[in-house]
Amino acid sequence: MRLTELPIGSIARISSIEDSPYKEKLQEMGCIPGVLVKPVMMAPFGDPIAFELEEYTLSMRKNEAYSIQVNLLNPLFNS
Amino acid sequence: MDNKSSKIVLVGNPNCGKSSLFNNLTKLKQKITNVPGTTIENKVGTLTQSKHKIQLIDTPGTYSFNPKSLDEKEAIRVFFEDPSPDTILYIADASNLKRNLFYFSQLAQHGTPMVLALNMIDIADFKGFEIDVERLEKELGIRVFKINARTGEGVSTLKKALFQDQFVPHFTFGSENDHTHESHYDSITKLLNKTTKIKTKRELTTSKIDAFATHPILGYLIFLLVLLFIFQSVFTLASYPMDWIENGFGMLGEYLTETLPDGWVKKLIIHGLLAGIAGVVVFVPQIAILFFFMSLLEDTGYMARVSFIMDKMLRGLGLSGKSVVPLLSGAACAIPAIMSTRNIENWKDRLITIMVTPLMSCSARLPVYTLLISMAIPNTPVLGFVSLQALVMLSMYVLGTVAALVAAIVFKWAIKYTIPSYFIMELPVYHSPRWGNIWVNCWQKSRSFVTEAGKIILIISVVLWFLASYGPTTDQSFSIQESATLEQSYAGHFGKAIEPSISPIGFDWKIGIALITSFAAREVFVGTMSTIYSVGDEENFDQLREKMKKDRHKSGEPVYSLAVILSLMVFYAFAMQCMSTLAVVYKETRSWKWPAIQFVYMTALAYFGSWVVFNVFG
What we know:
The complex is a heterodimer.
Chain A: E1 11-17, H1 23-28, E2 36-42, E3 49-53, E4 56-60, H2 62-66, E5 68-74
Antiparallel strand pairs in A: 1-2, 1-5, 2-3, 3-4
Chain B: E1 5-12, H1 18-26, E2 30-34, E3 41-49, E4 52-58, H2 70-77, E5 87-93, H3 97-107, E6 114-119, H4 121-127, E7 129-131, H5 133-140, E8 143-146, H6 155-162, H7 181-195, E9 196-198, H8 206-213, H9 218-259, H10 264-281, H11 284-300, H12 302-316, H13 324-329, H14 334-339, H15 347-356, H16 366-376, E10 381-382, E11 386-387, H17 388-414, E12 425-427, H18 435-469, H19 483-488, H20 490-502, H21 509-517, H22 524-532, H23 541-550, H24 562-574, H25 579-589, H26 593-617
Parallel strand pairs in B: 1-4, 1-5, 5-6, 6-8
Antiparallel strand pairs in B: 2-3, 3-4, 7-9, 10-11
Helix pairs in contact in B: 3-7, 5-7, 9-10, 9-11, 10-18, 11-18, 15-17, 16-17, 16-23, 16-24, 17-24, 18-25, 20-21, 21-22, 24-26, 25-26
């Protein structure tokens, strides 16, 4: 599933990132397959979205989040 | 180690405390150097121990060795300079080591000796991260220090170590032929598994504050209140130092008038140079106070939230969340505002931000609005609590902002650029302000205003003084006190020459002169009017206002009717009357095309806007 489909508070593991002009930027910022990601909040109008990425919070637009494929780990798990 | 001088560059991710460390190491003894012919600015500080001198170079925060934005490009340029740096001092946020070590992993391949400083140890402790420094030193093969750049903890130990020999990292990130992002992150994870432990995971107050700061309704309300508070403070706080400056220059002028021998040199000094310098310095308080608040909001982490909640709206206009800082700074002065667009990655987003920022009402427009509003608008209360004059002033700010946003839409449609823009931004943890950083930032931005704008304003002031003081008739001995002779000066001739083109918007040749002189800087309008109406003293606002009000056309109609005054205000709101801004736009875009377009579109907008207003009210 795609990162945009995750409900707030759920935890997923990044599986792959599609090619795009911002793929490199996402990777530099730590979006790497295997990394845990948790949506924490949305800006008004639902875009951009902020994600907890292991140790810090990264915000990106829906468009960028859509290019990230994830595997949902536990929708109820709330650390 | 004696008699040696070495070059150390300080690098790291944004928000890792790099500026704090730099300020702390150099004890604020630093200077900004400009690389000739470019916009590159590096801060350089000097550390000395007996005869060993270290040149410490600060760089903009960067996430990787493949720069995405102009300020990141500046950051990595130091590695290609000659002589290349002797040592890299890498600062990492210990509470977010994994991502912070990515850029480190790229630099570690270059064969340059490195030192690693782990900052924000307190937050890392709070989050429950335990870092085994000795193990990390062993794995990496370089020296590693725990520091707290805010409190200065560990900084003196680090400083001493900088004077010793440093080592090249021997840890291999990725593998010999695999340097993908994945392989580097993989190595970093392995390294951290060996050297760090997580005890407990505790939540920071950040998420609690964010519940308010990014709330769909409260978020915008808080932002609006913050803005109102800032602008209120700027105007009330700045008025005191501005009075002192004006009085000070007034006294200096009087003193010089009495002491200097008569002649053109005296006039040049008093009416050219001194008036020019005063015109620059008087804005410093407003600009400094506004930048104080802007730095405060950026430093605490709040500004990133503002970008976060504004991005969606600004995106529709061809801007991005990162345009918020330049646009708001534009309310003080467009020059530093335009320079702050360097962190916008997308060329089109950045260009549009640069093109529309000068429409935001900068502080140079204030004295013009103040004079004109006091002439035309009665000071009657509206709804019992706010004066009509204040309301009109506020609407001038709204007018400028709306014009900027509309212009952005037009540019979005007009500029063809296919690389999509993105908004991938770290939301840093909130922390209490680092006053040292704020002070330095505020000082440097104010100084960039004085040096960038000041030089040009000063030169133009002298030129304009000459044009207003001398005319084509050779036998004329000129006195600036008399308006009749100003009419015969070069400036008067220019004013007359352009009168036919500005009469459709209600302006006569006297306003024409002011429009020409205002090209140096908008606030020169008031000074020019004082000269034209022979009000010797610029501070004598009331006298000037009365004289302007009484001025009549030959037909007996007042020169400054309501329609003319409103038309003038609209003209000053839109017109590109700032040489210094054009110069900065040239520097930042490296082409004359963009300042030329900016000049034409803003002036056309001003002319059209004034024409509409003049005809609606006339």
